[in-house]
């Protein structure tokens, strides 16, 4: 109705949605949304009571399966706490999912993987606005865990037996203010440089698109300085 102008009114939109099979609305507000007009559509004969029941049934079936109508003592989800969410089994599964989701585009001269036995005495620099900023590591709609469970690249790499140096270069993804000396100083003395770049929700989210796919601000310059 608002974006594509397929319909003109909330009532018309409610009828079209119901006929299309939609049974759940992400509303603009409790008092002013599309599905609040369903009773009017029903009274006018635009939809039938049978259709309304068919649309509602799977919603309540799902709620029943989730135990929303059971006493809390009967609902197994009520007993779940942080110890269950952060159990060794779940943490191992998260690690497996992370490892299997990595996309390696290039591995010149077999640089990766970094092996712990090869790192003692080596100097490793981790640079970039995503190197040690937990806030920017999560995408749009992502749940942000407790800080103690967030491992930034810097925090993770510091677990390796190497001498770690760090330089953000710029403090946020837009990278409008860039400290070249900071990055060159850290990367210039390192045997291995890990550069952490990207966009994050500061730059792009739902309804906030970009005109191109280039790195924002001075991030490309940061990358070039880090690898020279």
TrEMBL record:
SUPFAM superfamilies: (Trans)glycosidases, Beta-D-glucan exohydrolase, C-terminal domain. The keyword Transport does not apply. Gene3D superfamilies: Glycoside hydrolase family 3 C-terminal domain, Glycoside hydrolase, family 3, N-terminal domain. InterPro entries: BXL, GH, Glyco_hydro_3_C, Glyco_hydro_3_C_sf, Glyco_hydro_3_N_sf. Keywords: Glycosidase, Hydrolase. Residues 103-226 form the Glycoside hydrolase family 3 C-terminal domain. GO terms for biological process: arabinan catabolic process; xylan catabolic process. Pfam families: Glyco_hydro_3_C. This is XYL2 arabinofuranosidase.
């Amino acid at each position: 109705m608002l974006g594509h102008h397929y319909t003109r009114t909330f009532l018309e939109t409610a009828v079209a949605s119901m006929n299309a099979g939609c049974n759940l609305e992400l509303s603009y507000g409790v008092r002013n949304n599309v599905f609040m007009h369903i009773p009017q559509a029903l009274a006018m004969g635009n939809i039938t009571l049978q259709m309304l029941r068919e649309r509602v049934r799977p919603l309540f079936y799902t709620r029943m399966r989730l135990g929303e109508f059971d006493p809390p003592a009967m609902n197994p989800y009520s007993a779940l706490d942080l110890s269950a969410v952060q159990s060794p089994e779940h943490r191992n599964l998260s690690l497996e999912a992370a490892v299997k989701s990595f996309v390696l585009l290039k591995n010149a001269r077999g640089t990766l993987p970094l092996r712990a036995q090869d790192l003692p005495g080596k100097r490793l620099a981790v640079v970039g606005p995503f190197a040690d900023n937990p806030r920017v590591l999560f995408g749009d709609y992502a749940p942000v865990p407790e800080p103690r469970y967030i491992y930034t690249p810097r925090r993770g790499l510091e677990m390796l037996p190497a001498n770690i140096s760090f330089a953000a270069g710029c403090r946020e993804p837009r990278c409008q203010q860039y400290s070249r000396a900071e990055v060159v100083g850290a990367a210039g003395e390192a045997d291995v440089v890990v550069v952490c770049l990207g966009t994050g929700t500061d730059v792009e989210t739902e309804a906030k698109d970009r005109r191109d796919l280039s790195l924002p601000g001075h991030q490309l310059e940061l990358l070039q300085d880090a690898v020279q």
